[in-house]
Structures are given as C-alpha cells and as structure tokens.
Please model this.
Amino acid sequence: MSATMPPALQLEALSYAYARGRPALQDVSFSVPPGSFTALLGPNGAGKTTLLSLVTRLFQAPGGRVLVCGHDLRQAPRAALGAMGVVFQQLTLDLDLTVIQNLRYSALLHGLSGTLARTRIEEALARAGLEERGRTMVRALSGGMRRRLEIARGLLHEPRLLVLDEPTVGLDVDSRREIVAEVHAFCREKGLAVLWTTHLIDEVWPEDRLVVLHGGRVRAAGSVREVMGKANAGSVGEAFGALTRGKAA
Amino acid sequence: MKPWALCFAGILWRELLRFLQQRGRFLAALVRPLVWLFIFAAGFRSILGVSIQPPYQTYMLYEVYITPGLCGMILLFSGMQSSLSMVYDREMGSMRVLLVSPLPRWFLLLSKLVAGVLVAALQVYVFLVIAWFWEIEPPLPGYLTLLPALLVAGLMLGALGLLLSSFIRQLENFAGVMNFVIFPMFFASSALYPLWRVKEASPLLHAIAAANPFTHAVELIRFALYAQLDLGSLVAVLGWTVLFTAVALWGYNPARGFVALTGKAGPPG
Model:
C-alpha cells in the first residue's frame, strides 16, 4: 500500500469506563495499516467488545480519537462510518427476512439502490456462497452461512476497513477455519484492512499484525514477530500467555 | 438528499416486511381494538349514553364515541411495543446495524420512529374499514384528515416509549409497561368517556385526564376523523412530541445512552 495513505484505523489514547465500574479501557492507542489483517487478541473481559463499540460509534469515548481512513469519527462520522464495514459478535440479521431482503436493507442504509445495489447484492451472494439461497429465510441458514452472509453484508458498500468482533464464536471447527481463511484472502486480494478481535490464538496467521489487549490496556502491538520478540516467546501462544499473565491494570 | 431518502425508504420497507410477516402481531394489533368495539362498547351501549358534543352533530352510539380512542389505543400499543423492542428485544442486533450506518443518529432514530408510526397508521385504517361495517361511518374526508393526526399522535407516543425505555430500567418487560403506562394513560383519558363526565365523578381524575398527553392525542384524532381541527389538542400534541423526542434523542446519546446505561452492549470481550 502507498506510504501516503492514512491508516485504515487509528486509535489515539482511548479510554472508557462503565458507570460505577472499573475502567474498561485505558489509554488505548494503535493503528491498522491499509490492506493489513490486524488481530486484536485478548482474553475474555479484556475490553475487545468495548473497544469495538467505540470504534463503531455505539459508545462515545470521553477522550481520545478514532480516525477511520483519516476521518475523525467524532468530527466526520458519516465519512468515517461510510469507510467501515462491521460484523458484530452477536447475530444482527433479521431471521424472518430472506437473505436478499437482509442485503437490500443494508444497501439502502448505505444509500445504494437500483442497478448498483442489485450488482453488489449478487456479488455478496457469490462471496457468501449463497447464490442459490437468496430467497431463503435467514432462520433456515446454518451458523456458518449466517456468518458468511454477515461478512458479505459488511462489505456491500465496499468499505476500506472491515471490523469483526469475535466472528467465529459458536461456529464448528471447519466453518471457523474456512471463515478465517476467507477473510485473510479478501484482505490479501482486495487490499481491504481488517481488524479481527479474537481470544483464539490459532486465528492469528504469521504474516498478520497483532495487538494484545489485556485488562483494558494494550500490552503489545506490531507484527507477529515483533510481539513475540517483545514477550521473548517462541510462539504466539507463548507470547499471549506471557503478556496476559496477571492483572494488567 | 438521495442517501437520506433511500435510508428512510429502507427503514420503512423493513418495518412493513417484518409487520406483514409476523402475522400474530398483525392479528393481535387488530383483535385488541375490535374486542373493545364489539364486546365492551356493545355492553356499555345502553348504560353510557353520550350526548351531543363537538365534533359530533347529533346523539351518538357509544361505539361511535370510543372509536377514536381505540385508534389511539392502536398507536399507543404500537408505539410502546416498537420503542421497547428497539432497546431490549432481539432487535438489539438490528439496531446496531442501523446505528453503524453512516447517516446521523438522530435521523436514523427519527426514521425508525416515523416508520413505526406509518405501520401503526396502516393498522388504524384496517381497523376503521372493519368498524365501518359496524356502522362507524365518519365522513369520507375524515379518513384523509385523519392521517396527519395519526402521524403526529403516533410520533408522540413512539417518542414517549423510547424515552421511557431509555431511562427506566424497571420497564424492561411489556407487562410492566402495560400496568404502569398503557393502562393508566388509556383509562385516565377521554378515550372511553367524555371529560365532562369524568369531572362529575372526580375533579382530580378530570384534572389528570385533561393533562394526559393521550387525551390530547385522542381528541386530535376524534376531530380529525370528522374532518375538523382541534387546535388546542394539536398544539398540546406537538408540544409533547417535541419534548419527548428531544429527551429521547438525548437519552440515546451514546455517551450516556441506554446501551451504556443498561449494560446491554453485549457480552464483554
């Protein structure tokens, strides 16, 4: 990617605390370069979902900045959100609508209509391997198919950044492996930047970038090799264990 | 302008699809006022005579009197139901999809409210068609002038539902809302009996009913159904709508919004 392009996602000194709770995030800063697959690795309760809620504007951080492709989420939310596709951990499809109806709704929310919307929907169906299931109710789809559909929906408006919150939760081993491989392939082939949160180390590939979050703080960030070097570890698993041992806060 | 129109069209289209596909909801929404009309009103017909009062030109049957109140009831249930489901139900997931789309949050929420009101207005018209066969026959222009009244009143009730669900955690289930909001609002209003009759029974209840936003909604609908404008009710409903909407949108602010308030952002990760 060009060196002049701003990072697909840049977080600067983000902090967040729930009411009457301890801080969920403290001074979190890292960036996702254009076209990179960045895994945000952290144990349960590390603050990954809170972080994604801030990145997607569901929550607003009292301080710090979120920049999406150079657009400040607070100053220019329309440009920032328009450049981002989101896949939540929780299922967000309408179970009682068909596959195509779900995609069409999302297309309209992003201002796509007519031929362009139809073309994008066809592409999304092909990407999700659901060409034959367009008129099927989402309720009748398997967990793996629903996930693929959500990812395809997140890419409908051709964002430059796709953020996914533990997208393989609840899937069987084969579906999990396939989805991890597919998103890595999009990233490589289409130059899409990906922020992928997970607590599963086998979803991190050697060429990925890695951010380790623990206790609401970034414990390490960089290429997989750099993070392993920082933890003085021989594998991602060892590095993760070393960086998330004990309380981080 | 186009993305805004498309976004609203998408929200409305989805609301309609969901409504039509959930046949149980459609049926329940229709059966509720019809039970009141066919059974309750028929039973009270001989007990409660209603004398001439605007907008009616003559003595009327009790069924005729309560029809606007039942239209309001449809809006009330629908407004509370859709606003609550916006927050607490399975719709939580789809609300996120809506909220991470690029247009401003106030526009997305208002579109959702308006779309819900239009679907509720559709239910009102289906109810009125059935009521027509029960000899509830308002003048034809009334069906036209009713629409804006339904929109304003529906928006007020939808915004009230959103406001309640933003701030009151105890109202998580619909039964609670029925007991503490819907029933008191409905019964302490002019939906079932004229305010002057309430005054005879209890001045305090009359004062409460006269201040009740639902009374203003019902009176606005009542006059509109007879192609007349009740300016006082319109001003009151508009005032309540602005107030409820402003507070509801403020409550939806992500910095202190209900997602953070209720801690229902999803499982921590």
Summary: Chain B touches chain A through 39 residues (CB under 8 Å).
